[in-house]
Specification:
Elements lengths: L3 E4 L5 E5 L4 E2 L6 H21 L3 E7 L5 H13 L2 E7 L6 H7 L10 H10 L5 E5 L2 E6 L12 E6 L13 H10 E9 L4 H9 L2 E7 L6 E7 L1
Parallel strand pairs: 4-5, 4-8, 5-7, 8-9
Antiparallel strand pairs: 1-2, 2-3, 6-7, 9-11, 10-11
Helix pairs in contact: 1-2, 2-4, 5-6
Length: 224
């Protein structure tokens, strides 16, 4: 499918798929969405609740690597040891990554160097990006995830339920539930009623929370 690079509302870029009328990130602001949904409501929520200095994260839809980039800097800043696993069936091309230019909008001096390193590391094995951040990228479908009680936090950043409803089913969330440790947390930008009910049927306790700019609500689910 054809993919285009477009600017979002906060000046950061994202990938747009015309055939689906679907964006990789919010058109209202890719950076703002990632910071609000995954960093503030996921990463910091888990750390504050569990007083932990170790964190195992699974990202469903590694995509552009924006969420991993932001997590890297928060791990460094807060001295949290993060093991980050990103699952992606269709990796973004080198040309697209260059055009996204997230180093321009992430206010860290070495953002370009880190972003390049995240994408140039080998797939299917764990790579040390820094003493506080290890990354393993896995090229596979979400249905192939088989870990049991391995992760503390899931960044659920799949394409939206409008275009790929099968990724937001009760079956998928039951698998997500199995991969999480006790009291593990899943965060996502979606707040659809069908998604919330699928999460609840899978066993999660689900909260509706204020969403990022341009979106009224989002969901956070906790394994109970």
């Amino acid at each position: 499918m054809k993919r285009e690079i477009i600017k979002t509302g906060d000046g950061s870029a994202t990938i747009f798929i015309p055939e689906w009328n679907e964006h990789y990130h919010s058109k209202h602001g890719a950076l703002q969405e990632a910071l609000h949904v995954f960093i503030k409501t996921g990463f910091f929520h888990f750390l504050e609740k569990n007083k932990s200095t170790q964190l195992s994260i699974l990202e469903i839809g590694f995509g552009t690597g924006l969420n991993a980039l932001l997590t890297f800097f928060e791990a460094e800043r807060n001295k949290v040891n993060v093991n980050y696993t990103g699952v992606e069936a269709y990796p973004v091309s080198t040309e697209e990554l260059s055009a996204l230019d997230y180093a321009e909008v992430v206010s860290e001096k070495n953002a370009a160097e880190v972003f390049k390193k995240l994408h140039e590391t080998n797939w299917e094995r764990r790579n040390e990006i820094s003493p506080f951040f290890n990354l393993q990228k896995e090229k596979k479908f979400f249905s192939d995830i088989s870990e049991i009680e391995e992760f503390d936090l899931i960044f659920f950043d799949a394409f939206g339920p409008r275009v790929q409803p099968e990724l937001w089913s009760e079956e998928v969330f039951r698998n997500m539930y199995r991969t999480l440790k006790e009291n593990g947390v899943l965060v996502t930008y979606s707040a659809k009623g069908d998604v919330r009910r699928a999460m609840q049927a899978a066993g999660f306790a689900v909260e509706r929370l204020p969403g990022p700019p341009g979106k009224r609500e989002m969901l956070r689910a906790t394994k109970i």
